[in-house]
């Protein structure tokens, strides 16, 4: 595998930004690593970080490079600050960057497939929300998406913005969403799922996972019920674990095994 610290200018963000990119490399002499068959274009997982993290976190806290090598898949890990994957009311357009500009840039610079069947997203906490939003708002582009301990209920967070336990306070949410604190319909996972469920267009496969000791468990359970009602393709997993990296390291391995990767 090769690891790239990718620095580039984003038109959407109007700034130079960074992403970590892991690319498969066909080798015969690399000790301790699995090498897959060389391909002209590789399937790609867009792997998203949580609220307090950045694009470096998955390589620092897990063995994602080794796991990706075993599946012969590329991984793109962007940085979106504390944007909650939104086009911010008083800040950069991180949703446009993530959903449109970043895939196009990566497919231009790297040997990544642009086929829907080869394009996936996953993330933890805030990134779990971002990954599901990608799949449900862009079902024509993403074949499968996964949420690990996802902070899925944006509307609830905006209703409870003044409560002591809020991770994002009113001032910060105002900068993200706007002073009315009402998220647009294309930010609401429940509404997006209903739209996909009523559409004849392809539906992304969805993986939901959360630890039973995680304070966000109820959000995954509630969203699971919603997806089941809509008949959307869902794999659901919950088991012992809290909001921590031991759980996410184990789960990202399951996600990579679950992805519907096509044979080269």
Automatic annotation (TrEMBL):
One of its GO terms (molecular function) is acyltransferase activity, transferring groups other than amino-acyl groups. It comes from the Bacteria. This is Putative esterase.
């Amino acid at each position: 595998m090769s690891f790239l610290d990718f620095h580039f200018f984003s038109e959407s963000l109007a700034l130079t930004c960074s992403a970590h990119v892991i690319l498969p490399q066909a080798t015969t002499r690399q000790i301790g690593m699995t090498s897959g068959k060389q391909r002209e274009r590789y399937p790609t997982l867009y792997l998203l970080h949580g609220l307090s993290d950045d694009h470096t976190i998955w390589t620092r806290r897990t063995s994602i490079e080794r796991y990706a090598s075993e599946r012969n898949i590329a991984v793109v890990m962007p940085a979106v600050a504390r944007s909650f994957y939104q086009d911010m009311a008083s800040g950069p357009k991180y949703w446009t960057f993530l959903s449109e500009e970043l895939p196009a840039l990566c497919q231009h610079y790297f040997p990544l497939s642009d086929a829907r069947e080869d394009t996936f997203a996953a993330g933890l906490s805030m990134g779990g929300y971002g990954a599901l939003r990608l799949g449900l708002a862009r079902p024509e582009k993403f074949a499968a998406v996964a949420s690990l301990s996802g902070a899925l209920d944006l509307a609830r967070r905006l209703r409870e913005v003044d409560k002591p336990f809020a991770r994002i306070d009113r001032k910060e949410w105002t900068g993200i969403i706007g002073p009315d604190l009402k998220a647009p319909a294309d930010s609401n996972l429940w509404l997006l799922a209903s739209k996909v469920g009523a559409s004849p267009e392809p539906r992304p496969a969805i993986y939901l996972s959360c630890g039973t000791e995680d304070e966000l468990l109820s959000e995954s359970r509630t969203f699971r019920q919603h997806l089941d009602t809509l008949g959307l393709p869902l794999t659901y997993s919950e088991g012992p674990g809290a909001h921590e990296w031991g759980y996410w390291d184990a789960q990202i391995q399951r996600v990579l095994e679950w992805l519907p990767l096509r044979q080269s």
